[in-house]
Here is the input.
Amino acid sequence: MELLRRTELGKAAAELRARIDQWRRTRRTSTERMPESLWREATRLARLHGVSGVARALGINYRRLKNRAERTQATRAVPDASSRLFVELGLPTVAPGGVVLELVARDGAKLTARLPGAAGLDLLALAQALWRLGR
Here is the structure.
């Protein structure tokens, strides 16, 4: 698995390194900033393969790449409302012993509620309310 990841990094990094080198040869001044499209690709590789190895393979600034990777990681850690997935399941009638409601977040956080007398209770509304409290 590790060998496969290195091979993937090697091929992708070689292609991106060639584009970065081309940009370096054709830029107008030595202080010109690297294009955002190259940074985005470098950041994507860093999130997949690690900042240090990618920075070294591409010949770019480690700290800048690390900061960009951390910023994009932070913005992706909290999905927007449109990317959340909620699956509604048909609930059976409430058993005499009650209901166990279990919510599991994408990050693995889990909430379990045991409701002994849940007859007439809107479980969907309860789940949504509990979910909002935890976020």
Observations:
- The chain has two domains: 2-77, 81-134.
- The beta strands are 99-104, 110-115.
- Residues 2-26 form the longest helix (25 residues).
